[in-house]
Amino acid sequence: MAFEYAPAPESRAVVDIRPTYGLFIDGEFRDAADGKVFKTVSPSTEEVLAEVADAGAADVDAAVAAARRAFGPWSALPGAERGKYLYRIARIIQERSRELAVLETLDNGKPIRETRDADLPLVAAHFFYYAGWADKLKHAGFGPEPRPLGVAGQVIPWNFPLLMLAWKIAPALATGNTVVLKPAETTPLSALFFADICRQAGLPKGVVNILTGDGRAGAALVAHEGVDKVAFTGSTAVGKEIARTVAGTRKKVTLELGGKGANIVFDDAPIDQAVEGIVNGIFFNQGQVCCAGSRLLVQESIQDELLDSLKRRLATLRVGDPLDKNTDVGAINSAEQLARITALAETGEAEGAERWSAPCELPDSGYWFAPTLFTGVSQAHTVAREEIFGPVLSVLTFRTPDEAVAKANNTPYGLSAGIWTEKGSRILAVANKLRAGVVWANTFNKFDPTSPFGGYKESGSGREGGRHGLEAYLDV
Amino acid sequence: MPSVTSTPTAGTAALADATASDAALRRFLHGLPGVDAVGLEARAAMLGTRSIKTTAKAYAIDLAISMIDLTTLEGADTAGKVRSLSAKGRRPDPTDPETPKVAAICVYPDMVATAKEALAGSGVKVASVATAFPAGRAALPVKLADTRDAVAAGADEIDMVIDRGAFLSGRYLQVFEEIRAVKEACAREDGSAARLKVIFETGELSTYDNIRRACWLAMLAGADFIKTSTGKVGVNATPPNTLLLMEAARDFHAATGTRIGVKPAGGIRTTKDAVKYLVMVNETLGEDWLSNEWFRFGASSLLNDLLMQRQKLRTGRYSGPDYVTVD
């Protein structure tokens, strides 16, 4: 008899989702000025979770005006006072973490194991970290009395809804800015719950404003006259549009865009741990991670051994109900994203790469894609060049460290990379040559609020996290 | 979950070269892939988060009971103590005859005959530690005599300790030959042999790289089981070091087609812990290893916790430690 794990679903009862949600402007929830709404669905079941207000130009005006009014008093507060609010928010997030984890899993489709063990702890840690900076800004290396910029317009993606919100809002508030944030169209709920947390924490009205809506609301926010600072995380295509929009204005901008991270495995790597790192690099959050290790560069001499181990491991991944505590791989976030992944995988096959998918049963409803890898991939293949943003790994080989570095850098992106070797000197030598904002050694997808994160080349500009992350929100 | 199946890629014959000389053995063991401690521990911790409930838990509890080497290894052991432990092993829960019996009773060599008699006809095996357990600090002839004595008294299984001093000073071939010699001493006159478990005392080997090398050394030397520890030192079985043993057994099977058993021992006291180890077996070695032929727990207090959890699942109530026997 086999050891079959009985279903172990996390309770949905810990989260109370209302049927409708308004925009959060000036400390109040309100309908969109033109009354428009849209639905947000659970990607694992296609069930409608709630109806959410669809912000238009008038709402963007109102939110920016509220943030402008709040900016004066907020920025005049002593840093220690702003820090108090941030600590309070961080503690409330910890207290409500189970509720928020379930909510995020419902709205995004990612497994509860990830929201519980990765997203939520990191969200709280980010607020705690920047709360600590609020009264120490003069020691941050940006002058004796660094000033905030004003109103920050922030647009975030759907892959880590609440975590990206934390990356944006925590440093902005710590430095004395006020915020208008637009969450992604497919994952608006956790930002609206965060709005409630702001009220619970007694945050002054207008300091944080949340506008739900689609790309038009985001574009209107970025282009708005009253916005002093633009922060965007998302696709490179949209990032380029934003850069064009803000060019020639006073607005300061940070962009965190796409990636095609190389995970380089040398022949002296710790194989079992490298396999775990590869899995974590590309199947964490269904591969919908901008810094995913989507290109595996493996030294030719260990290719067969490594791929055998990797396939054996992939066969043990548990794909299915994201609320089940034993699920490793959840649902793709939207039908649109699933279509894109499917199309790119088909291109991979058409171009002659060999496709292998983990044997797993996919649920009937919802958006699903089996963990997949392509072997026999060359630099010229589409699946080696384009960001797929899904659970699809392209396997390439190399013979020498120089070749590994050349191939790793041969991409318009430059967000992340991984190096697997037991030889410390090789880690240092190779890391120095990689054009990537973050280089992991013998690990992958490890995040910490103290560590700056950002891209080279078309992966974006500016850094979020750590002391460096303050700079983007200060007038320096 | 699909089972882990592999086809032998290199026969034992190819590995024979590895043990041709001290230098060759050293090259082979040091050529094994390294172990990244952070990554190994993270993987073991992740597997520990699996949520095993209801039917899966009931299955795991019964499986765990059937995998226990119920152990008493005290200076104060007496025939009476061994007999009462044997009775417990045959019928762990007098209130429920459906409860599986344990895999073996594990004792010192001088208690083997007593245990054998007490377990006659039950199917529960007698395991005996040997080779100057737990330190292993005795001359080889003494260790071999210790082993032969236990086998002659009827031991079905021998749990030997390796010479950690020799291992740590790099005398791998000496350790290898000692395991070989003990394996030969496990042979019975009728041509059968006691199964040999090789204890590394992972807490004393200290690094994960050493533990992996010790695994391969023992498997090449003919171990039937590889076992973490004696239970007599500060650090005994842990999820990471047991995971490492499992990975070695998995890789050895892939390379040679020979299946090796794994036994964590020492420090596993709760049902929760035991279930975590079974999850590790399931997701590392696959279901082929999920029987007491290939996986054991070396434990003494674990059984009672499993029995209490079993009663709780069966009756819906938690009855407390007075409702399981203290032996």
TrEMBL record, chain A:
Entry GO MF terms: oxidoreductase activity, acting on the aldehyde or oxo group of donors, NAD or NADP as acceptor
Transmembrane region(s): none
Residues in Aldehyde dehydrogenase domain copies: 31-475
Pfam (any one): Aldedh
Keywords: Oxidoreductase
InterPro entries according to UniProt: Ald_DH/histidinol_DH, Ald_DH_C, Ald_DH_CS_CYS, Ald_DH_N, Aldehyde_DH_dom
Superkingdom field: Bacteria
PROSITE patterns found in the cross-reference section: ALDEHYDE_DEHYDR_CYS
Family: Belongs to the aldehyde dehydrogenase family.
Protein name as it appears in the record: Aldehyde dehydrogenase family protein
Organism: Streptomyces alkaliterrae
